[in-house]
From TrEMBL:
<dbReference type="InterPro" id="IPR001173">
    <property type="entry name" value="Glyco_trans_2-like"/>
</dbReference>
<comment type="similarity">
    <text>Belongs to the glycosyltransferase 2 family.</text>
</comment>
<keyword id="KW-0808">Transferase</keyword>
<dbReference type="Pfam" id="PF00535">
    <property type="entry name" value="Glycos_transf_2"/>
</dbReference>
<protein>
    <submittedName>
        <fullName>Hyaluronan synthase</fullName>
        <ecNumber>2.4.1.212</ecNumber>
    </submittedName>
</protein>
<dbReference type="InterPro" id="IPR029044">
    <property type="entry name" value="Nucleotide-diphossugar_trans"/>
</dbReference>
<feature type="domain" description="Galactosyltransferase C-terminal">
    <location>
        <begin position="130"/>
        <end position="190"/>
    </location>
</feature>
<dbReference type="GO" id="GO:0050501">
    <property type="term" value="F:hyaluronan synthase activity"/>
</dbReference>
<dbReference type="InterPro" id="IPR027791">
    <property type="entry name" value="Galactosyl_T_C"/>
</dbReference>
<feature type="domain" description="Glycosyltransferase 2-like">
    <location>
        <begin position="3"/>
        <end position="119"/>
    </location>
</feature>
<keyword id="KW-0328">Glycosyltransferase</keyword>
<dbReference type="Pfam" id="PF02709">
    <property type="entry name" value="Glyco_transf_7C"/>
</dbReference>
Length: 278
């Protein structure tokens, strides 16, 4: 059985859309919703919601008013999962028909980590939001949007690192550790999901800055220079970005502001770490 793990924080409308969409999925599966510090009507909706599939509802957060982050929420969902396979998918990711079965079919070999196709609505393309069409995938494409893996493998590598409690970093950290553990990474074109990415453009740029800083922390945690190059936070690469992007970002369209914000966040994190060491 597949356990679909959905962390959520104060986005009841999106969560309801996702859960009702899952009602049409075929196959044997359960859904585990982890309400992380929700203060809106998410819990009220979940109490009254009775889907055709098994549903577990967990609550995390300090007094249920302050979330502990997606990494911790996903870990709690994984602990409660009854399935042999974990399928991580955030509340703003809407699966298409056959999504669960496509992930199930991908696990014909041990230690497989399956990454599905992630698409954006037309109005968000080029905005800097994540889109993955394949066919090549790498460890940094392992995210909580559309990824499945054996529960045993997830537990073997220690799950998500809850130290990444702010936005960003937890996915690439997990992907790197799965790569080191010898995962068999596959792209599943038929496992299609739409990433609605509902944030306002200003918020998306803020998140890009946070992601830059978080990726620096992933590199510093493991000390592998390959991480810095793969995630775009190597000091040499950042120096080039900081020199060129302010004047050339317009050539990148909507993605230019995102790329510059990411570089700024990474640069600031590097400078802060230098000051800490001195």
């Amino acid at each position: 059985m597949i356990s679909v793990i959905v962390p959520t924080h104060n986005r009841r409308t999106l969560l309801e859309k996702k859960l009702r969409g899952l009602e049409t999925q075929a196959g044997e599966f359960e859904v585990i919703v982890v309400a992380d510090g929700c203060t809106d009507d998410t819990l009220t909706f979940l109490q009254d919601y009775h889907p055709p599939y098994p549903l577990q509802v967990l609550q995390t957060g300090q007094g249920y008013g302050q979330g502990l982050g997606a990494a911790n929420a996903r870990n709690q969902g994984a602990k409660a999962a009854r399935g042999d396979l974990l399928l991580f998918s955030d509340d703003d990711v809407m699966p298409k028909a056959g999504w669960i079965e496509a992930h199930r079919r991908a696990h014909t070999h041990p230690r497989t980590v399956a990454v599905g196709r992630l698409i954006l609505p037309p109005e968000l393309r080029g905005s800097g939001a994540a889109e993955l069409k394949g066919p090549r995938v790498f460890w940094w494409h392992v995210t909580g949007n559309n990824t499945s893996m054996p529960k045993a493998l997830f537990e073997e590598v220690g799950g998500y690192d809850p130290a990444f409690s702010a936005y960003g970093g937890e996915d690439s950290d997990l992907g790197y550790r799965l790569m080191r553990a010898g995962m068999r990474l596959v792209f599943v074109r038929e496992a299609v999901a739409l990433h609605e990415a509902p944030e306002h453009r200003t918020r998306a740029v803020q998140k890009a800055r946070q992601a830059g800083a978080a990726h620096v922390r992933v590199w510093q945690k493991h000390g592998d220079p390959r991480i810095a190059w793969a995630l775009g936070v190597h000091p040499t690469l950042l120096a080039v970005k900081m020199a060129l992007l302010p004047s050339l970002k317009g050539l990148l369209g909507g993605r230019g502001d995102y790329e510059l914000a990411f570089a700024w966040g990474a640069w600031e994190a590097l400078e802060a770490s230098k000051n800490t060491r001195t």
